[in-house]
Amino acid sequence: MSKTESDTKKKNQYSFDVPWEQLLDDGSFMKVFLSEVLEQYVQKQRWYGGKSSTLKYIELQEYFRIQQREEVYYGLLLEVNFEEAFYQHYFLPIAFVSDENFAEKDRILPVSIKGQEGYIIDAVNLEAFRKLVYERILSAEPNDTTRVRYHKSVEFQGTEYSSSKFMGLEQSNTSIIINGKSVIKFFRRIYADKNPDYEMSRFLSERKGFRNTPAYQGSLSIMDADNANITIALMQELVPNQGDAWDYLLKELHKVFSNLEYKGIRIERLPDIPLFERLKIRDVPPEIIDWAGLKVFLRLQKLAQRTAEMHIALGSEFEDTAFTPTHFNGDYEVWLKNRLLYQFQNRLNMVENKLSRLEGLSLELAEEFLERKNEIRKRFVNFDWTKLKGERIRVHGDYHLGQVLVQGDDFYLLDFEGEPESTIRDRKVKQPPLKDIAGMFRSFHYAIYATIFNNPDKYPFPQESLFKAGEILYRYFIGVFLETYVQLIQENNLNIGYSAERIFLLKYCMLEKAVYELGYEMNSRPSWAVIPLEGIRSIIND
After folding, report:
1. Which of 39-53, 101-115, 395-409 has the highest mean pLDDT?
2. CATH number for the domain harbouring residue 133
3. Quick one: 417 and 300 in the same domain?
4. What is the distance between the alpha carbons of residues 209 and 373, in angstroms, rounded to a whole number?
5. CA-CA-CA-CA torsion for 38, 39, 40, 41, nearest 10 degrees?
6. What separation in angstroms does the CA of 324 have from each of 187, 320, 335, 345, 350?
7. Given phi > 0 = left and psi -120 to 50 = alpha, else beta, which region is 397?
8. Whether residue 113 is found in the same domain as residue 139
9. Residue 85 pLDDT class (50, 70, 90 cuts)
10. φ and ψ at 244, to 5 degrees?
């Protein structure tokens, strides 16, 4: 840096004559910090979820110290207010560094504190901060009742800190790999309650010994001014893996669609089955096995087994009321209908306003969606809890192939935070376990269509023929998965209703999921709107 640049930088710095340990009590600092400088910084972050809204101003809701002996960092709970009259809360840890080598990324503000020049930065970028959080969790005392609470699982036997690194690009959180064995996930968007990911992770691994989710190791939380327990960070086992099940299935499906030409498959002669018909692998027609191969069906059986085991664990609690199974009732019906009818109206408005962005099959399906809106709305209204005998439990809530890790021939289930659009309260409502199954089935549907879209010149067939083949394959995927899942659930006495009830709930939840997906596609990639629209049509036609 030249002398001129250095002088300019110094002139641009803000000076405060208070020590770092008292800086956030200084009104002049807070006025500078909460200005456009922080607003611009926050809006550039991947974890910021308000990009489609207009930011009005940021307030510091409260702050707390994250410290060990003389080493002090601040955890900020920020309230971001929007012009649209709503707000969101975010967690931002900050550090002051004077060495420029430590401030290459995420500089928020150049400052001079007691004559010491440096930068306020996001503390997650500082190894010393990550080390401190890990060490505080590792040395946490049981039954901590202080305001800033560190917790260590009784099952976790940690080792001395040696290294840390960022896990990779994430949207809503920041995950750090510690010692190549643990992952600390810092939640950026926060809520005035325990995070469902923390609750579910700890319950499944500590209380139920469920082995196919990353083991809970510890956490960091803060009791806020209203005495709400806010989860700030979750530490879990790092599971060695070969990527997620989404990427795995895309690779398998590419082979399957390539086989259409390689094996001379006649698409019009492929045997079809009704949606939701349960199938043992030995009952899958030889033509389908010849086309798709046996391996993919064996993997689906294993995924169905792990999913059933997760639900069995979640449905086997009789002490902790947050997890005890319950039945359907009028309150649930009112909550469900209000939520879904509001969401459905939102999607209707979106499709009507953006119809001009669609073409071809997407446009045709969107017009049909609008024509049949009363029929679809009636499907949502026709939820009658008195006819349902199954149980509701805490569920994953946002279950799809991207939430599953592949490890050899096995699967690990993760990320229990719930559906991004839902409130924290809604994410904790007990749901039929088949809601998760519906999410996974929609993910199968997406993977099939994504394979066709992502490889436009690799399969020498009209797109319409590929869609037809994909729809047939989709039904076999569902059939094999359902057979394994339902059998295991019934053997372990979790009540998911009889066949007619299960099919009703699956259709209902899949319709809900497809309508939810339609919002994302209309906003982000209209050419893919065909996937949820096709899903909606197939469900209401079945």
Report:
1. 395-409
2. 3.30.200
3. yes
4. 45
5. 50
6. 26, 6, 19, 33, 38
7. left
8. no
9. confident
10. -95, 170
